[in-house]
């Protein structure tokens, strides 16, 4: 029976958003190309054997438009015969790219695929693809007459529904930074990160080797001094019951980054002399309330576990995207997951969330965590705009 395996996975360091981010000077095509090129070099795969590059990007406009995956593949030096496609499932775009790659291998349509993702939020600001436009139309407006809301308001609604205090959110964020700083100090990111050089404004090159938004000195007291990020008259009138607990400190920052994963079958890997690191075990995608929006990871996790024939206790490590602290806390509360198994090396609040690149980044980190802890099964899940969510189970080999 054909399976789908991960031969290797790599990511760039994650940069701060402009104006102070080191990767802000790197074109997203070149940032993406660095992840793809690093993956090819590390695995030694003949680039001509790659059947497709499937990539996720959210802001498909400007420098990330025109099927950005194709230009990244060419910039990485892949043969012109290698095709590429860019997909958009919002923040889950590159996780969906991995699903499509694995499903293509399982179907016999592919032998070797790169699944990847990129987002330069410095150069293509979040939401710029819909600026001044109505992405919903009359049908959605009729179905949701009160109107949909930004993700930050959804995070506030989640915090209120599950009763998470501002102190609880800030404590969670503090722990994310502590874990990420400890992981960097212990060298736990060394295998997954491919350093690169980035141009400074003065024309010199900077060596970018680590994630730029990890703050080792973060404390609950520091975070308590931040103002609510989404409090505004329009939302206070609509939701007078909210206490306004979401801040820049307990949410993911603005980031630049890319990641890439090489997917084959075990049979193909053996023929090519490649040693797989993990098997792509099970996949799920689901929809949920587009107003709460970020809760889809709860049914997605249940769905993927059912598909996998596994229970929550069978999972040794979880990567749950930290778009907001309230999202992960609600997921934990509903499912009863052990916090000690969730985002062991820190999450997006500390490491960063380069939108379309985050799904592949989470998978890269999950693979590292399983190998570092000796775990067998890992599960990652990603909340996505519109009330969507992906979930993936991998098995370490």
From TrEMBL:
Q: Which family does it belong to?
A: Belongs to the thiolase-like superfamily. Thiolase family.
Which residue numbers delimit the Thiolase N-terminal domain?
5-266
Question: What UniProt keywords are attached to this protein's entry?
Answer: Acyltransferase, Transferase
CDD domains assigned? thiolase (cd00751)
Highest taxon above the source species: Bacteria
**Transmembrane feature ranges:** none
Reply yes or no: does the keyword Transferase apply. Answer: yes
Q: What is this protein called?
A: Thiolase family protein
Where does the record place the Thiolase C-terminal domain? 275-396
What Pfam families does the record tag this protein with?
Thiolase_C (PF02803), Thiolase_N (PF00108)
Keyword Manganese on this protein?
Answer: no
């Amino acid at each position: 029976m054909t399976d789908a395996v991960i031969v290797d996975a790599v990511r760039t360091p994650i940069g701060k958003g402009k104006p102070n981010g080191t990767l802000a000077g790197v074109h997203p095509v070149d940032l993406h190309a660095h992840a793809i090129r690093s993956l090819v070099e590390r695995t030694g795969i003949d680039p001509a054997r790659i059947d497709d590059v499937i990539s996720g990007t959210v802001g498909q406009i400007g420098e990330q438009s025109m099927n950005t995956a194709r230009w990244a593949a060419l910039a990485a030096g892949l043969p012109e015969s290698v095709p590429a496609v860019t997909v958009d499932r919002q923040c889950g775009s590159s996780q969906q790219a991995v699903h499509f790659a694995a499903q293509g291998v399982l179907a016999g349509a592919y032998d070797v695929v790169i699944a990847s993702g990129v987002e330069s939020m410095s150069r293509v600001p979040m939401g710029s693809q819909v600026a001044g436009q109505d992405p919903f139309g009359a049908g959605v407006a009729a179905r949701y007459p009160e109107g949909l809301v930004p993700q930050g308001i959804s995070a506030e609604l989640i915090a209120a529904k599950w009763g998470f205090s501002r102190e609880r959110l800030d404590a969670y964020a503090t722990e994310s930074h502590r874990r990420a700083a400890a992981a960097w100090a212990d060298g736990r990111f060394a295998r997954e990160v491919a350093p690169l050089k980035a141009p400074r404004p003065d024309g010199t090159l900077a060596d970018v080797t680590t994630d730029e938004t990890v703050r080792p000195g973060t404390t609950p007291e520091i975070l308590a001094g931040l103002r609510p990020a989404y409090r505004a008259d329009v939302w206070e009138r609509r939701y007078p019951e909210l206490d306004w607990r979401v801040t820049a400190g307990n949410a993911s920052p603005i980031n630049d980054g890319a990641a890439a994963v090489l997917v084959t079958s075990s049979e193909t890997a053996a023929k090519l002399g490649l040693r797989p690191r993990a098997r792509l075990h099970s996949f799920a995608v689901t929809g949920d309330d587009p107003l709460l929006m970020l809760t889809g990871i709860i049914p997605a996790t249940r769905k993927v576990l059912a598909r996998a024939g596994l229970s929550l206790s069978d999972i040794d490590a979880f990567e749950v995207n930290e778009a907001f602290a309230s999202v992960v806390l609600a997921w934990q509360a509903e499912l009863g997951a052990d916090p000690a198994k969730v985002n062991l090396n820190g999450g997006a609040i500390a490491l960063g969330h380069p939108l379309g690149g985050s799904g592949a980044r989470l998978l890269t980190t999950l693979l590292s965590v399983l190998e570092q802890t000796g775990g067998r099964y890992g599960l990652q899940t990603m909340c996505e705009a519109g009330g969507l969510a992906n979930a993936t189970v991998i098995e370490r080999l």
